[in-house]
Amino acid sequence: MILDKIIELALLEDLSLGDITSDTIFTPENRAKAVIRAKEDLVLCGMETAREVFAAVDPQVRFTPLKKDGDDVKKGEEVLALEGRTLSILKAERTALNFMQRMSGIATAARAYAAVGKKYGVMIVDTRKTQPGLRRLDKYAVRTGGARNHRISLADSVMIKDNHIAAAGSITAAVAKIKSVIGHTPKIEVETTNLDEVKEALAAGADIIMLDNMTPEQVRVCKKEIAGRAIIEVSGGVNKDNLEAYCQAGPDVISMGALTHSVPAKDLSLKIVQYIS
Question: Are 238 and 246 in contact (CB under 8 A)?
Fold first, then answer.
């Protein structure tokens, strides 16, 4: 399972040679209770991933969720409680927090961006600009926050981009080649950068037209040209500061790399609250 591999690699970064500090201070008989708290307001995400981290280190650690993925959590609130070997809690601490902090950061941003899109009837989706190796987790966090997923892999849908067009010779040639091979059922998306390319994509029979790195005003012009003949996706350069302006231009979908490639992690911390023995 892919999550098992991700967790295994993450734990190896910390524990391939042991934990010189904890292994020196504590014995396997020492036990403790701990909690993880939010240090800022956030949309929680990554609870099951954290559970699997602690289980991979020590299946006997008791993991008690106090919140669930998708919950709005306020600064200072406890999100989960732990009880078990002190060594196990400390060895799993950073890896579990790293996952939860990144995933909560993505979910928090997704919640905010999706709310803006909803006001205008625009679907907010992610891209493949994810942390290498963590795409499944990044995209799960996007869904947890309320936004939607675009492609997870290159096999998921047809998207003819600039380099496909350059190598094929034209939008028309690329679309024709796709249609001659895959038939009529899959939707075909074509990336365009100007009005002439939009017209060519429409003439070629594109089902979805991506308006790449266009201004909101250019989007309005292209929307008038498309006139409902294809789904309109806006992509490139969209961020929290200009998202509303792009939504007002009237696309059907806005894809945002900013959902995953540059979202700050949210701050959570683990604290030992009781030393049992």
Answer: yes
